[in-house]
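Hey, I'm writing a tutorial for new members on how sequence and structure tokens pair up, and I'd like a real worked example in the thread rather than a made-up one. If someone can provide the structure for the chain below, I'll link this post from the tutorial.
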Amino acid sequence: MSTRPPYDPWLAAQAMSDVTAAAGLDAQALSALQAQRLQRLLTAAQSSPLYRERMAGLDLATVGLQDLPVVHKAELMHRFSDWVTDPAVTLEALQRFTADPAQIGEPFLGRYTVWESSGSSGEPGTFIQDAAAMAVHDALECLRRPTLRPYQKLLDPWGLSDTFAFVGATGGHFASTVSVERLRRLNPVLAARLHSVSFLQPLRQLIAQLERIRPTVLATYPSMAVLLAAEAQAGRLHLSPQEIWTGGEKLSPGMRRFILDTFGCAMADSYGASEFLSMASECRHGHLHLNSDWVLLEPLDAQGRPVPPGQAGESVLLTNLANLVQPLIRYELGDRVTLHDQRCACGSVLPVIEVTGRHQDSLRVGPPGKRAVTLLPLAISTVLEEQAGLFDFQLVQQGPQDLVLHTGLRSVVSPDTVERACAALADFLVQQGAHGVRIHRGTSAQEAVPLGPSGKGQRVVPQPCPGLRR
């Protein structure tokens, strides 16, 4: 029997009011609000032994954000019990909880929403949110996401006539999957119209499932949306969504045009991470606006120095002003972000950002002269992480039927893990119809890892194979 996720109507109403009010603030008032919320976060962080140690000797009443220490995921996860402010939360208990797919969407300890990061930087993370933090995320999703069909919104403000499908990794406690399941449990009226579709299943099955669901709203990663658009143009997918929401990867202008030209519907992109799910949403001009009333981003250069507005950073520091249970203060996220100081024509005081996210070209494999099987890097990573427990890897394509799996790039990986990874990947390839693809094990763990567009090590490196048919 499922348990209702943590939800407090009073906190929800307060967050909706706060998010609404922030939209009308000028730059000075927004800065004051940020400072107030940062002070609240620093006070809460004093209940964290790790942060208390890292901030010893600092006057928290006068300290500036850039005077605070930088933290990294590996350190925080290694000292998890010292990191969290609730001593009842232990990493061991959380790992037992997230190891059970039946617990997806269930509250941990009856009061926390839990999700995991994918480990794209080689280090997986586990994040918890209480009802207050979730109220902020809900308010940002509800009020900052653009209204793509305003007339439909007037006629059906609660979306009761829409059918929603999320296409992604559905077998783990990932933020998007947990969010869909949480909404299903909070709103039984909408539950029958909310669907999660695994992108790890063979493409034919995925298409058949989507055609049965017939979603009016499709949410997925840009690379998956491009793949579905290609299938639609080839006549293998018959779908007429009225809205497409993308996130989790870089959406290039070319990708957007291809998706829009194919489906001819409204579309919006967003930017988020497991560390803060609703960082930025698009306005009607197509610009991403940072929700800087609740999250702070500091782009840095390669030497860790702040970069001026308008210049892309090599990495970025994140400060989550909403989560007081698991403080994230100047946390290195790793993405390349450009923060602009010019006001957007939409009138919002929230800053415009550009994100070079996690987009990577898909792998196309198969015998020369045959139709290629397209594999999403995100799906491959999910298989290796979830089925083999392998996070430290790089998969390099060396031809239409040859893949090289490098492991141990940052840490020691056991032979058993490599064996499980090769077997899981081989099974996945066969399930996708990619027969005859050879998986080779890399011979050197010290080979340089080329940087991907996000500034992180590129985990899946494709190679053009012109001999394959689309």
